[in-house]
Amino acid sequence: MTDLVLNETRDGIVVLTLNRPEKLNALNYALIDRLLAVLDDIEVDDVVRAVILTGAGERAFSAGGDIHEFSASVARGVDVAMRDFVMRGQRLTARLEAFRKPVIAAVNGMAFGGGCEITEAVPLAVASDRALFAKPEINLAMPPTFGGTQRLPRLAGRKRALELLLTGDWFSPQRALELGLVNQVVSHDDLMPAAIGLARRILRHSDLAVASILTAVARGVNQSIAEGLMVEAEQFARMAPTADLREGLDAWIGRREPCYDDSWTHIARSGEATTPRAIR
Hints:
Layout: E1 5-10, E2 13-18, H1 29-43, E3 50-55, E4 60-62, H2 67-75, H3 78-97, E5 103-107, E6 110-112, H4 114-121, E7 124-128, E8 132-134, H5 148-156, H6 158-167, E9 170-171, H7 173-179, E10 184-186, H8 191-203, H9 207-220, H10 225-239, H11 243-253, H12 263-270
Parallel strand pairs: 2-3, 3-5, 4-6, 5-7, 6-8, 7-10
Antiparallel strand pairs: 1-2, 8-9
């Protein structure tokens, strides 16, 4: 049976590929469940330090939820649709948003509906110049259900988000960049090298510090500034007794490169690692 999520790890970076190209990588229930399970495994795998998420084939990152499967759940009643579709999708985007290792979406094509919501949820995203985004749920007479009514306004601002949510119009990768949905737009052939390069720039640093920043931002971004500052202080308190902070301070004072207890950090900083063979 074809694996719904392809998994390749090289040099501390795992590339996860949504693998339903014949369905434009639509998010059926089995794919969502598989991706959640893979994320659980990755979170406790010390070899993996960063995640790149992309789509199989040349056409789509993900066209969104599997409408045929979702429609069958709706036909069985609101409770079934809420349990099977809405809660499952929200579980996925919340998991990606709060993941304690950096997740970078490499948006290689169409990112509609749930595919767009994944892009909104992950901490970082790079888009191909062939990517295309849309919030088309309004065409089905429904709101987005994987977090799109909440995350997009926080990223883009209320009025700009509402224009996209209420019209269902597609928008370009350049527009996605302007709205804060992606960090960078590159030529299609440069997409994976750009995503890997971004991951490596992060891998130069302490894993514990990276996790603390991801946690502080994910937990604090939707709170008041006072509550967010408490989260920030809590994350510092967790770092204060660590060897990583001591090494970072000693290295700065000694005007040398820090040497954390992690071989992948050394490789990323020295530039010895090459582009992972499986994802060139």
